[in-house]
Every structure is written in structure tokens, then in C-alpha cells.
Design a protein that fits this description.
With about 625 residues, the protein is an alpha+beta fold. Helix content is about 60%, strand content about 15%. The protein has helices at about 15-35, 40-60, 70-95, 105-125, 135-160, 170-195, 200-220, 230-255, 270-290, 295-340, 360-365, 370-375, 390-400, 445-460, 470-480, 500-505, 505-525, 550-565, 590-605, and strands at about 5-10, 10-15, 195, 260-265, 345-350, 355-360, 405-415, 420-430, 435-445, 490-495, 530-535, 540-545, 565-570, 570-575, 575-585, 610-615, 620-630.
Length: about 625
């Protein structure tokens, strides 16, 4: 049987064991209901089914990845199945039959059934529940209230007519069977309310049906008429078959649930205890109305009072838990508020229109704005006009994504006029009813941004003159390549006899002269042009959107500005320089710089001051392949 493989028919899995159990159920139960079957045959079939159930439980327990708690449960109910099988075998081989008039046979069989039900109930009762102690106490009170209601129902069945039956044997057996059935019901109710069970959903349904049918047959064992014996036999066989179906369903469903457990989120509260209160009150009123305060009536009174008391205790415990929960929530809220109030980071909550709904006290430190005055105003209304576009762009981006977040560095001005930088994280929470807005967290990174800007400036500028260095010049060139093609010019400048200034007057004077040269170069070019120091006494000027005549005019303006004397450390000095000019539109910057370098050395060699690198082909025509330098007078 362990090797039976489910067959597929029409895309569905057909398990041969379940199919066989279904066929046996139809044939056997149908035969019991439609015809008189000898008691020995009924006992033999039931014993075989209970033995099959125990074997199927053995298959379930053999699963390797099964949870220990589930494995213990299935071992217990397998033992219960064996006890039930023994009961049927005793009635079969002991020569006992079970007509209603043979009470000794019924008592013996019922005692065996009671032992099996007790084992089954213990298996459910012993299943551990993982939950806090107070939650476990509430669960026990809920289960107790429900069980008292079921005890009242059993009392009603055990005491027919309102008084104790004359046949004490009948009473003892019925009470014992009822108690055992209630024990099994206790375990089932506990598992139902707790939200965890040692079986899969399909197996749980079959087990519950088997317990209900079996408990009904036991409770009515001594109360049915002789003509109803066939119905009793059918119910007992149906109970055994349902247990076998449950074991097989557990085995099959553990393919998807290897642990064999069923876990669901336990509800915050259960309505079953309140239904128990209503049911017990109805039973009490009906009993008193019909029979008055008889023996059964007094049992109903005690049971109804007990249920109400248990529910009141459970409610009192729930109120105490709620009070503790509210205290913890108030404590957490106070702690959270304290954290927000004293946090250095700014927290804002704005709606879809950008209106501030909450602002933490850090707004006063970051922008110099009182948080109370910010609530109800647009976020952009707290900023200067030149700071608004970046904030509007961030809000538009985060609103475009219903569940997205946007991280940006934003610039803002403090009320005192100082510039501040903030690392902002905007998160869209408009879809959450409890928030219904955009949460913006801003961390002040002004010092980090200032340090970052300082490091970048040091990496891209000459330390002495403050002019851009070769790295920043290359960045400028890369930016120009993305713009529309236009003519550019490169002026390479080298000071004449600068070494003699350092040798005769000292490096300090030479440095001051370089600073003065840098200042005059800045004044001689347009804002769109770039002046950079390559090193030593070499400077380069990058002119954009110019012509050869314009580049030469700029070079002459530079020479004239440098020729003006300057007082440096008590010395009257004037700088002389040689400038090489290279002009092109589709030439690489490195090529232009190389051409300007050639022209500059030519100007230094012939003393002309300015030399233009000319590209010619043939006679007097510009070309990009051949060229030379020419003085510009």
C-alpha cells in the first residue's frame, strides 16, 4: 500500500486508496441501510477498516520531515484505531452480539469504545500550543465555556424525561461514553480556536466528521429502538471509514505540507463562547418551560451559570489585557514622540497638494521656521523661489509612483540667509488610510556637502591661482562635445623669463606674479570661456564660438594686460608672454592643444608674441591635414 501511486485521469489525480474507500463506503453502508446484515459481518468489516486506519497512520508517521508534535498525534490516534478494532473483534469472536436487549454486550463494547475515544481525545488535548501565557489562559476559558455548553447537551441526552433513568447500567455507560466524546470534542474545539492543528485541512475535515458521527452513535447506543439498529451500524461504519479517509488525506497532502501541520492566523477574538452563552440560555429556558426545576432542569441552571461565569472571567481578563496594551501603546507613543521631538532629522507629512500636515521641531533648526506655522501651508511656501523647482520635481516624481520612494539632495536657505543642504527621502503613503500623505525625511548634510565641495574644488582647481586645472578643463571639453558643433580656439600661454624672477627675487615673488597673471587672464575673457593653469608658468585659454580674428584679438588683449606693471613685494614687475593660437571646429581638443603648443614655441623663438597655427593645403587654402605657424601682426 505504501507503493500505491495515484493515477491521473483528465488532468486530475485519482488515489487508488481513496477510490477503494469510497467504493467500500457506498457498498457497505448501502447494504446496511437497505438490508439486514448479520452482526458478525458488520463487526468484521469495522475491524478491518480500523486496522486499515492504523496502517495508514503508520504511513503518515513514517514521513521524514513531519513535525514531532504532528507525529505524536497520529501515533496516539493510531492506537485509538487499534482499540476500536479490538472492540469489534471481541464482539465478533467472543460470541457476543449487539441487539438493544443484550446490555452486557453493549456495555463491554462501549467500554472499549470509551477507551479509544479517551486516547483520541488525549491526542488532541496533548497537542502543544505556542502562544503567550495570557493568550493561553484566554483560550482555555473560551474552550471551557464551549465545553460546558456541550456538557449541558450531553446532560439533556443522559437524563431523558427530566429524571435519572431506572437502569443504572444504561446511565453509567451513556455518561461514560458522553464524557469520552466530550474529551474528544474538547481537543477539537481547542484546535479550532487556537489556529493550529496537527493535521492538514482535508484530514481535519474528515476527522471532525468521523468524531461527530461516532459520538452520535455512542450517545444513542442505548436509546435507539431495535428497528433502528441498521442506522446505528451504518453510522459506526461510516465513522471508521471517515477516519481512514482522514489518514490517507493526511498522507497525500503532506506532499505540499511536509510538516503535517495546519497553521492559520488566530483571530483576535472568537464568537464561539458567546454562541455558547446564547445556546445555554435557550436550553435553560426551554427546559424550565417544559419540565420545571427537575433533575435535568437543575443541571441546566448550573451549566448556564457556569458558562456565564467563565465568559465573564474571560472578558475581565481581556479587559486587563486591553488596559495593559493601551498602557504599552501610550508608552510607545510617548517614546516615539520624544524621539521625533528631539531628532536632528526633519520629518514632514504633506498631502497630495503639497500642503504640510505635520512638521517635526527639526524644521526650526534646518530652515528657521516654527513647525506650528508650517502646518497648513504649502511646502514650497516655506522656501525661497530659487529653491522651489527642485522640491516640486521631487514631489512630482514621488506622486507619480503610488508606492515609490525618491531620494534627492536639496538646497534650501535658512531664515538667516545661510545656505543649507539636506538629504531628502520622500515616500508615497497616500494609499494608506492611517497616513494619507507623502512622508519626507530630511537629514542636514550641509557640513558634508561643504566638505565635498571643498574636496572637489581642490581636485579640480590650481591651489595657487584658483584657476581650473587640467582635470576640470577636460570636463569642460567633454561638456562642449554634447553641444551643437561650433568653432573653438585654444590659446596656450607661457611667461617669458619667469625663471629669472624666481632666481633673482625668490619663489614667493614668483608665486605672487602668477596670481596676478591669473587675475588679469580672468578679466580678459568672456564668462563662457575657460582659463586654466597647466602647471609652472603655462596657462591655457579655451574660447568657444569664436573665429581666428576673435582668438587673436583676445591674445592681444591678454598681452596688453600683462604688460601693465604691478607692484609685488616692493618690486615693479611686468609680465611678458608668448601665446600660441589654434582654431578648429571638428578637431579634437588634444590636437588643438598640440597645435597651440607648436605655435607658442614658434612665437617664443621669433619673439613675435603671438603665433597662429595655420592649416593649409595647396597654396594659401586651409586644410585639416597639413599646416604650419604664421605670425599675426
Amino acid at each position: 500500500m505504501n507503493g500505491s501511486v495515484p493515477q491521473r485521469h483528465g488532468g486530475r489525480v485519482l488515489d487508488p486508496v481513496l477510490a477503494a474507500l469510497a467504493a467500500v463506503s457506498l457498498v457497505s453502508i448501502g447494504a446496511l441501510l437497505l438490508a439486514v446484515v448479520p452482526a458478525g459481518v458488520v463487526d468484521a468489516v469495522q475491524a478491518a477498516v480500523w486496522l486499515l486506519f492504523a496502517w495508514l497512520c503508520r504511513q503518515v508517521v513514517a514521513k521524514r520531515r513531519m513535525a514531532p508534535a504532528a507525529r505524536r498525534f497520529w501515533r496516539w490516534i493510531a492506537v485509538a484505531g487499534l482499540v476500536f478494532a479490538v472492540g469489534n473483534l471481541v464482539t465478533l469472536f467472543g460470541g457476543l452480539t449487539r441487539p438493544p436487549q443484550n446490555e452486557r454486550a453493549v456495555i463491554l463494547w462501549t467500554l472499549l469504545v470509551a477507551v479509544g475515544v479517551a486516547i483520541l481525545g488525549w491526542g488532541m488535548y496533548a497537542f502543544p500550543l505556542v502562544m503567550p501565557c495570557r493568550a493561553r489562559a484566554r483560550l482555555r476559558l473560551d474552550v471551557a465555556a464551549i465545553m460546558v455548553a456541550l456538557v449541558m447537551l450531553a446532560w439533556h441526552l443522559c437524563v431523558p424525561g427530566g429524571s435519572a433513568p431506572l437502569n443504572t447500567a444504561r446511565l453509567y455507560v451513556t455518561v461514560l461514553a458522553s464524557a469520552m466524546a466530550l474529551l474528544a470534542a474538547f481537543g477539537a474545539v481547542k484546535l479550532l480556536i487556537s489556529g493550529s492543528a496537527p493535521f492538514t485541512p482535508g484530514a481535519g475535515v474528515a476527522l471532525a466528521a468521523g468524531v461527530v458521527v461516532g459520538a452520535w452513535s455512542v450517545l444513542h447506543l442505548l436509546n435507539l429502538k431495535e428497528s433502528d439498529a441498521r442506522l446505528l451500524n451504518a453510522a459506526q461504519l461510516a465513522s471508521a471509514l471517515l477516519f481512514a479517509v482522514a489518514a490517507r488525506a493526511q498522507y497525500l497532502q503532506m506532499g505540499a505540507r511536509p510538516s503535517g501541520l495546519t497553521k492559520r492566523r488566530r483571530p483576535a477574538h472568537s464568537r464561539l463562547p458567546y454562541l455558547a452563552v446564547a445556546a445555554t440560555q435557550l436550553m435553560l429556558v426551554a427546559e424550565v418551560w417544559r419540565s420545571g426545576l427537575s433533575l435535568r432542569g437543575w443541571g441546566m441552571v448550573i451549566g448556564a451559570g457556569t458558562v456565564v461565569t467563565l465568559v465573564m472571567c474571560r472578558q475581565n481578563l481581556a479587559f486587563a489585557d486591553n488596559a495593559q496594551l493601551m498602557d504599552r501603546m501610550r508608552h510607545q507613543e510617548k517614546r516615539f514622540r520624544s524621539l521625533v521631538q528631539h531628532a536632528s532629522d526633519l520629518t514632514l507629512l504633506v498631502d497630495a497638494d503639497g500642503v504640510v500636515r505635520y512638521a517635526s521641531p527639526a524644521l526650526r533648526d534646518l530652515l528657521g521656521v516654527d513647525p506650528r506655522h508650517a502646518v497648513g501651508r504649502p511646502l514650497t511656501g516655506l522656501l525661497r523661489p530659487d529653491d522651489v523647482p527642485a522640491v516640486e520635481k521631487m514631489l512630482a516624481d514621488v506622486l507619480a509612483d503610488p508606492e515609490g520612494s525618491v531620494r534627492r539632495q536639496l538646497r534650501a536657505h535658512h531664515a538667516d540667509g545661510s545656505l543649507r543642504w539636506g538629504e531628502a527621502m520622500a515616500t508615497n503613503r497616500l494609499q494608506e488610510p492611517d497616513v494619507a500623505g507623502v512622508i519626507i525625511n530630511i537629514r542636514d548634510v550641509t557640513e558634508a556637502r561643504s566638505l565635498q565641495d571643498l574636496l572637489r574644488h581642490q581636485a579640480t582647481h590650481d591651489e595657487l591661482t584658483g584657476l581650473p586645472n587640467r582635470a576640470l578643463l577636460n570636463e569642460k571639453v567633454q561638456q562642449l562635445r554634447h553641444e551643437p558643433v561650433r568653432q573653438e580656439a585654444v590659446l596656450l600661454l607661457d611667461l617669458d623669463d619667469f625663471k629669472s624672477v624666481n632666481d633673482e627675487l625668490g619663489h614667493s615673488v614668483g608665486d605672487q606674479l602668477l596670481i596676478a597673471v591669473a587675475d588679469r587672464l580672468r578679466r580678459c575673457v568672456r564668462p563662457t570661456d575657460t582659463v586654466a593653469r597647466l602647471g609652472g608658468d603655462e596657462f591655457v585659454v579655451l574660447l568657444t564660438g569664436t573665429t581666428t580674428e576673435g582668438a587673436v584679438a583676445t591674445a592681444r588683449r591678454i598681452l596688453n594686460a600683462l604688460a601693465e606693471p604691478a607692484m609685488i613685494d616692493g618690486h615693479r614687475l611686468s609680465a611678458r608672454a608668448s601665446i600660441g593660437v589654434a582654431v578648429g571646429s571638428d578637431t579634437e581638443f588634444d590636437a588643438l592643444l598640440r597645435d597651440a603648443d607648436i605655435a607658442m614655441y614658434e612665437a617664443k623663438r621669433d619673439g613675435s608674441g603671438i603665433q597662429v597655427h595655420a592649416r593649409v593645403t595647396g597654396v594659401g587654402r586651409p586644410d585639416a591635414t597639413a599646416g604650419g605657424t604664421a605670425p599675426w601682426r
